[in-house]
Amino acid sequence: MGLIPKTGRRAPHVFGLLVSIFLLLSLGAASMLVPFMLMLSGSTRTGVDLHEFSVLPQFVFDDEVLYQKFIEARYNESASDLRSTWGSAVYDFAEVTLLPELNHEDIEAWQAFLDDQRIHPYEQFAGFVYTPISRGRPLNVREFMHAMLDRFDGSIDAMNEAFETDFQDWNAFRILPPDTRNRQGYQEASPLELAWQKYVSTQAPEWSVGVYNLEAYYHERVTAVLQGRDALPVRLSATASAELENWELFVREVVYPGFVVMDGRYDDLWREFLESRYGNLESLTQVSGQGVSQWQELELPERIFDAGSLAADWMSFLEGWKDLERGRTFQIPLDGLTLTSLDMRWRDLHGIHPPIQELDQWMFEQNRSEIRWAFLIQNYATVWEILIVHGRGLWVTVVYCSLAVMMALIVNPMAAYALSRFRPKNSYAFLLYLLLTMAFPPMVTQIPLFLMLRDLHLLNSFWALLLPGMAHGYSIFLLKGFFDSLPRELYESASLDGAGELLMFRVITLSLSKPILAVIALGAFVNAYTGFMFALLICQDERMWTLMVWLYQLQQEYGPGVMNAAFVLAAMPTLFVFLIAQRQILRGIVIPSEK
To answer: Both 363 and 509 in a single domain?
Structure first.
């Protein structure tokens, strides 16, 4: 039954009042919905749209924004990597736009060329791996981790033993491949990196993997650095030329040695270098394992990968090694060096630059739906894996909140029932004492509680979480007032029928108190679910962290997108519990008014 009967609603002033109330309630609902939608939209953000202010993600409707996000993730949120591959002066991913037309013949020719080539691991890169701006867990890192989970049956210890790593758990799993365009990227691949290379070659989505453009890289790392950003790009030749004054610097000190080929004409100089470096064949054999009987058997390897145990000597021969005793520097002459890369071989065949940008856009257009879905769920997948799959946050929180609600619905009603039913002499003094506990802010009581729980050896346990909040002064006060309003004739009748106190408490009191019990249960759940500081203080063991503590730890490492996704997921249980309890709460509001 409504507060205003149907006949009364026909009056104009009453109808206007109802419309005003409805509009105000709608405005209030919108004011609550908009922040949630902003948080929902923020959960899909990456670096390029991190500061966007909209209630709906723009990339869902705008393909150009989606393309910007795709290119940003493909080049690992590095505009420098984008310039080093496209060869264009793009300094912000928001500047990236879709090309009006694509030359499909060039794209098909470039793809056919790549299929015919033997692409070495150092010649290609994987996107969706590194997120220094948005600070998330990108697609390929998650998928590679899933592959390792399957390979080692979910055992992080087995993976650590096989790969000689020291990850504490799967949440600490990371992969950061070296940049194999520059000299710093030349290092012996670890077992984990070898597994990563295999994943990139066989399992990574095709649209997330690309190849390097050495000519664009030369301009970005050498020409633009030494001559300024306004310097014009130059054609990178395979051999030294007068037009490329920094070619030698690039080859000897900057570029990854896998792109360099040495001329076998300098075998004699190579042998002199080794003889000067090792002194005799016995020393050479001991250090490198080269079993040769005379120096003439040693030939200069063309590629560093052909040098085997002499790879370090090959590098020294490239960069230059000085014999201090003789005062002579051994270094392969410039005319004995040649650069080779996929883009340079393509250019020599076709006379044009490889259509890398066009291929990127073509891949985007072919996989638009999959890419959009990847951005929609990537932050939620990260939170799900960290908090639920590989962490105990959800399980601890469910157990803690369930026990907290159960305790609140047992201890508080029983205490209030005793005060209301038996009315002890000092009942109001008891109530005052209980209410006085609310006068102290939680920060004041946390240290004494911590010391008490420590002395009882209860830290890092559910008892430490439950015992301090088992009895709540305001809940007892509220319940006692509600119990006092119940007719005492009901208890007298039940007593005459032979009912005991526990039976009357359960059948009469609790049955008639469902609305107020729903309020108590909801309050207990919210206090337990949202409690952070106390839970962090008394449960410092990661295995006993609640969701709120996990959320605090997440923001130390992850960015706004992941945090917004975590907040959205964390808001769901509270909404779910409120929807369950709202019917009983509304009954407590409506029924007294009807009486």
So the answer is: no
Shortest CA distance to 382 belongs to which of 72, 89, 141, 128? 141
Residue 8 pLDDT:
59
Q: Do 439 and 503 have their domain in common?
A: yes
Same domain, 435 and 475: yes
Please write the tens of the pLDDT for every residue from 495-510.
Answer: 887 888 888 888 888 8
pLDDT category at 370 given cuts 50, 70, 90 is: very high
Task: Give 391-406 pLDDT, tens digit per residue.
Answer: 888 888 999 999 999 9
Specify the pTM.
0.85
Per the domain annotation, does 387 fall within a domain? no
Same domain for 95 and 35, yes or no, is no
Domain enclosing residue 26, as ranges: 7-42
Alpha-helix residue ranges (DSSP H) falling in 43-138 = 63-74, 79-86, 104-116
User: H helices then E strands: how many in the chain?
Assistant: 28, 6
Count structural domains, the chain: 4
Confidence of residue 4 (pLDDT cuts 50, 70, 90): low
Q: Are 521 and 558 found together in one domain?
A: yes
The 3-state DSSP class for residue 321 equals: strand
Q: Are residues 115 and 178 in the same domain?
A: yes
Same domain as 506, residue 443: yes
DSSP strand pairing (209-211 vs 124-126):
antiparallel
Q: Is residue 506 part of a domain?
A: yes
Contact 534, 442 (CB under 8 A): yes
Whether residue 459 is contained in a domain is answered as: yes
Q: 413, 462 in Cβ contact below 8 A?
A: no
Lowest-pLDDT choice from 116-120, 271-275, 323-327, 350-354: 323-327
- Spatial separation of the C-alpha atoms in residues 360 and 70, rounded to whole Å: 9
Q: Which residues fall within 8 angstroms of residue 350, CB to CB, at 6 or more apart?
A: 109
Q: What is the DSSP string of 354-393?
A: --HHHHHHHHHHHTHHHHHHHHHHHHHHHHHIIIIIS-SH
My answer on whether 193 and 288 are in the same domain is: no
If one compares 232 and 110, the residue with the highest pLDDT of the two is 110
